[in-house]
Amino acid sequence: MKRLLLSVATLWLLSVLIFAGARMLPGNVGRAMLGPFADARAVEQLNHELGTDRPLLEQYATWIGGFVTGDLGESYAYRAPVAPFLWTALLNSAKLALVAFLMVVPLGLLGGTIAALYRDRAADRILSALGLAATIVPEFVSGIILILIFGVWLRWFPISATAPEGAGLLTQVYHLILPAIPLVLVLFGYIARMARAGMIEALDADYTRTAVLKGLSYPRVIWRHVLRNALLPTISVIATQTVYLIGGLVVIEILFQYQGIGSLIYTAANKKDFPMLQAGILSIGILFTATTLIADLLYALLDPRIRHGGDE
Amino acid sequence: MTETSSLRIEGLSVGYSVKGQMQRILDNVSIEIGRGEAYGLVGESGCGKSTTAFAALRYLPRNGQVESGRILIDGHDVYALDTAQLQDLRRRSVAMVYQDPGRALNPSIRTGRQLAEVFELLGEQRADWQRRSVEMLERVRIRDPLSVMARFPHQLSGGMQQRVCIAMALASNPSLLILDEPTTGLDATVEAEVLDLIRQLRHDLKTSILFISHNLAVVAQMCDRVGVLYAGQLVEEGSTAELFRAPRHPYTAELLRCLPDRNRSKADAPLSTIPGFLPLPGSITQGCIFAERCRLADPLCRAVIPEAKWSGDGMSRCHHEDRIGELRATGTGLPSASREPGLGEPVLELHQVSKTFGQSAHHIRAVSEVDLTLREGETLGLVGESGSGKTTLAHAILGLTRPDPESTILLDGKTLGARLADRSLDQVKAMQIVFQNPDSALNRSHTVRRMIGRTISRLLNLSPEERTRRIEDLTRAVRLTPRHLSARPRQLSGGLKQRVAIARAFAGEPRVVICDEPTSALDVSVQAAILNLLVELQSSERVSYIFISHDLGVVRYISDRIAVLYLGRLLEVGPAKAVFEGPHHPYTEALLSSVPSIEDRPAHRVRLSGEIPSATGPMTGCIFHSRCPRKIGAICETQEPPRLQLGPDHVIDCHLPQDRLGRN
Q1: B162: domain range?
Q2: 0.90 surpassed by complex ipTM
Q3: Which of B51, B123, B202, B528 has the most CB atoms around its CB within 10 Å?
Q4: Which of B59, B98, B107 sits opposite A229 (nearest CB)?
Q5: Could you give the CA distance from residue A173 to residue A163 in angstroms, rounded to a whole number?
Q6: Looking at the partner chain, which of B92, B105, B108 has a beta carbon nearest the beta carbon of A210?
Q7: What is the total count of domains within chain B?
Q8: Residues of A with Cβ-Cβ distance to B78 under 8 angstroms
Q9: pLDDT for B364-406, tens place per residue?
């Protein structure tokens, strides 16, 4: 309950910051929309219509009031409600994130587990080095290389992430694989390192010793006693990364011409489309808060010590 | 082939590779444990006790390696087995229980499942697992097996966890049970119960036991034969009674002399200590490994490695076995604490001090209406099981936690603020604490000079020269040398670290120092040195101590008066001697009789049954009635006990008439 209140407070603070931040962008909304050659009267007129000439506090109140009642306002640029644009973009981003996620989580956990089981040996060294190397390559570098090799040269994958209208699930996934790979590269090292650390801690734990000395075979010790305790902390780390996968992909989305939330925010910022910008950023904020909350709940569900914490 | 011994270790040497170099941890150790025999392995930390156990189970750390020797369990050479055979050996023939049962059990699996796993491994029918688990838990005297099986380990108390571990170990009825410090870290009363249980089970099951402990008294009570390990070598071995009565190796003799026991107090004589440190593995290649620290050592000892000499079933490795008697005769050379206790003015007075922890509807009264007086230069021992409120009371005195409003704490007659922030610098300076674990109390990245210096700057207003002098004085006072000043904690041993912590506590010329289990993480010889230091500092600085410890021998030695705390209430306060000799409170009686001791094996023991109840909810009558072995009747449950005045300074809260209270 306390956690929930805290989340709400965080979001409110975020909304204020977003609002203030957006208004601090240089320039004038009406001018930005009508262009440098428009009549000053028309600019003023437009600003009045949009309400951008009213006091800031009042503007904030109108916006946030609408937001909590589900009215996200109207886009300045498209002169249409923000909501449908936002939903489409979020949905697209979620699809991309899901594809990346389904690739990186098993790979990361597997990599980390193998590294831990072969601690300080060649397999461990290679995996750790690869993970680290992959993490430090920025998405736009790996993205461009991937496009050149697999899209342009080998032509295995389409270079646009957007599938044709009305395409089936498989086609959509097919289009998303190439843009997902840079994300996999960035996250793999991170998840693998967490999984490795968790595994090593569990392997060295007294309860693992108990299990071995009971006479359990090594695979069963790992499967029954080690894995579950080892991967707990990793899971909560992964959950916080989902936000990065959804909201932090401006570069990838632009590189692969994909209409996700990242490119939506980017375009809105360029066009000074405040309602769109604010709704976009705040929705990421909500996602972030929600995923951390879910991560904690998930952790509690898997760890009886936290689940039953209160009733001792 | 009939094999007469459960465990036979022949000339075992084990090395650990540290930074590419092999360091020998165990050197040519031979031990034989017969069927049904209990063998105790004692020694200070780092002597190789646990390594011996893990080598026997073929579970050495990744960098450990058996360099030579053989280990046979039930006649099977452990290191000649293939994987499947080794697993089978671990399933059926040998089991182990170790320290810290909370960690030995898997936190995310219910205890029932963990226990059933043993039966699964023995190849029993799934249908029988539950029945067999219940049987095992009943065997370790768990009253409600099904509910324990449905719980996760963290939902059980430490004593219960250890019972589950023991049940798990004994489920396969192994011929050898290895116990590595099984009761270290448990409360005295719980320890006594667990030891009773092990003794009983051993009797029923005819299991052989390898019992590893640093606690000589526990080993004395549990084992038929004892081996003493020093720096990886078995220096003495013999039957328990013989070895403790007449040790044949100087190390054993010195170790026994370090022990504070209930018949000694600081007024009698300082404790003897063993000078010097445990040698680094492999650093002594010539002569006797103990020569450097031995008071009998002569050139022969430093040149020639002593052979094992057998007489009867006892063995010792010493050139001067015949001169051991001299060790007992010589004194320690230190003056005893020469002062009359209990004559000073009151320094600290507590009136009706309570502390309630509240969580909405939940109220836990950790400390309840405590009245206490601490006089100048006096040591007040504070004893009780964990959860009795010792630490909470200490924190309230220090201003680290705010006591309930009606509480009053007076320092030199002046009321102290409830919180540290409400107190003047002088008042803060006047009260200091020494914690149990110096590792977590000292900043790892600071030098000793900086740690002590910082405390001095915080508490005293001194010029740089005076400050330097003060640092040097303090260092000398706690018997550190100036070269220690530039050392960092990781370069110091546990005992040295605790000296730094003590120096820091004394930096601001305190009036009261609270010692919270200051020696329980230390070996006996180091503990003796720290206790001697505390006594010396007390007589030179006229400081008063509140000494919290679960080791009653230590409390008896250092305390002038003792206060017994149970569920946040004082049940008895009195002079140390009177509290120990009685008449005493039934709870004190139970605490005292639960302490294992080397000399006597008391026929009559008072055992507490049941768990310590929780302090939530109103408890009517005497707080101890639910576990009291001497309960009179309904009056104990309904009426608060009267305060009996047994002596000028000795009070007990109990319904029993004075002449029916227990004595020792």
Answers
A1: 101-173
A2: no
A3: B528
A4: B107
A5: 9
A6: B105
A7: 3
A8: none
A9: 788 989 999 999 999 999 998 877 888 899 999 999 989 998 8
From residue B277, give the alpha-carbon distance in Å to each of B227, B523, B527. 21, 11, 13
Question: Does B90 lie at the interface with A, CB-CB under 8 angstroms?
Answer: yes
The C-alpha atoms of residue B545 and residue B534 are separated, in whole angstroms, by: 9
Rounded average pLDDT over B519-538: 86
Tell me the residue type at B301.
C
**Any CB–CB contact under 8 A between B105 and chain A?**
yes
For the domain with range A82-311, which CATH number is right: 1.20.140.10, 2.30.29.170, 1.10.3720.10, 1.10.8.420? 1.10.3720.10
Residues B119/B573, Cβ–Cβ less than 8 Å? no
Q: What is the mean pLDDT of residues A26-53?
A: 73
* Structural domain contains residue B121: yes
B83 vs A contacts (CB less than 8 Å): 217
Indicate if B319 and B351 belong to the same structural domain. Answer: no
DSSP string over A49-105: HHTTTS-HHHHHHHHHHHHHTT---B-TTTSSBHHHHHHHHHHHHHHHHHHHHHHHH
What confidence score (pLDDT) does residue B337 get? 52
State yes or no: pLDDT of B417 exceeds 50. yes
Per DSSP (E only), the strands in B174-271 are 176-180, 208-213, 225-230, 233-239
**How far apart, in whole angstroms, are the C-alpha atoms of residue B468 and residue B89?**
62
Question: Does A212 reach chain B within 8 Å, measured CB to CB?
Answer: yes
Neighboring chain B residues of A308 at a CB cutoff of 8 Å: 152, 154-155
Structure tokens given for A254: 């632009």
* pLDDT tens-digit readout, B448-485: 999 999 999 888 888 889 899 999 888 888 888 888 88
> Closest by alpha carbon to B535, among B324, B189, B270?
B270
